[in-house]
Amino acid sequence: EAGVVQSPRYKIIEKKQPVAFWCNPISGHNTLYWYRQNLGQGPELLIRYENEEAVDDSQLPKDRFSAERLKGVDSTLKIQPAELGDSAVYLCASSERVGTQYFGPGTRLLVL
Amino acid sequence: AQSVSQHNHHVILSEAASLELGCNYSYGGTVNLFWYVQYPGQHLQLLLKYFSGDPLVKGIKGFEAEFIKSKFSFNLRKPSVQWSDTAEYFCAVKGGGADGLTFGKGTHLIIQP
């Protein structure tokens, strides 16, 4: 069974530029999560989707971050414009409705 | 808001030594508890989990953890570590109506051959 797929794996951009990350969850997993992991820290939840509905986006900085999961399968997380402090690893995870979360490899973002 | 505390940020052990990594959480209600591991260059993988039942749970690669409700703890143990156990270990909690996980800051474990 394929795991959670994320792309790109690495991204280097200059500040004020836009950037987007893509995630394809495990087949059949209705719940999708985006986390951000800063250096030396554990992951922190940004947003959770149940199918195509964002049911918890309280930790998403909405002034510059947006996310979508239009067909309830894959998802995109966008930052516009990026700031130096956005440098981090962005992780996607998926689960069945109330099951264990499985994580993708992450996208390592460096903002210069 | 929940919080998770991992007491040791860096641990260095020799092969065959016993391991115990501490984890405490703040939420007093029903919780689900997890230990994830991240080997160098790899993504987060589930080591073990506790949802209910026997508070002593066994995971992959000889790891186990004990849920002690009165102490709000979920410590990870392994009787004899191997060089291949070198990795970052994260304790995580789900509870209080939140469906996302709250992670600790992680413990970087280095096993010396």
Can you put this structure into words, describing what you see?
The complex is a heterodimer of chains A (112) and B (113). Chain A contains no helices and eleven strands. Chain A is mainly beta and 112 residues long. In chain A, the strands form two sheets. In chain A, strands 2, 4, 5, 6, 9, 10 and 11 form a seven-stranded mixed β-sheet that branches. Chain A has a four-stranded antiparallel β-sheet with strand order 1-3-8-7, with no helix packed on it. In chain A, strand 4 and strand 5 (44-50) form a beta hairpin. The radius of gyration of chain A is 13 Å and the shape is globular. The N and C termini of chain A lie far apart (37 Å). The N and C termini of chain B lie far apart (41 Å). In chain B, the strands form three sheets. In chain B, strands 2, 5, 6, 10, 11 and 12 form a six-stranded mixed β-sheet that branches. Chain B is mostly beta strands and 113 residues long. The mean pLDDT of chain B is 92.
Could you name the key traits of this structure?
heterodimer; A: 112 residues; mainly beta; seven-stranded mixed beta sheet; globular; B: 113 residues; four-stranded antiparallel beta sheet; 52% strand
Topology of this protein?
The complex is a heterodimer of chains A (112) and B (113).
Chain A: E1 5-7, E2 10-13, E3 19-24, E4 31-37, E5 44-50, E6 53-56, E7 65-68, E8 75-79, E9 88-95, E10 102-103, E11 107-111
Parallel strand pairs in A: 2-11
Antiparallel strand pairs in A: 1-3, 3-8, 4-5, 4-9, 5-6, 7-8, 9-10, 9-11
Chain B: E1 4-6, E2 10-14, E3 19-21, E4 23-25, E5 31-38, E6 45-50, E7 56-58, E8 64-68, E9 73-78, E10 87-95, E11 102-103, E12 107-112
Parallel strand pairs in B: 2-12
Antiparallel strand pairs in B: 1-4, 3-9, 5-6, 5-10, 7-8, 8-9, 10-11, 10-12
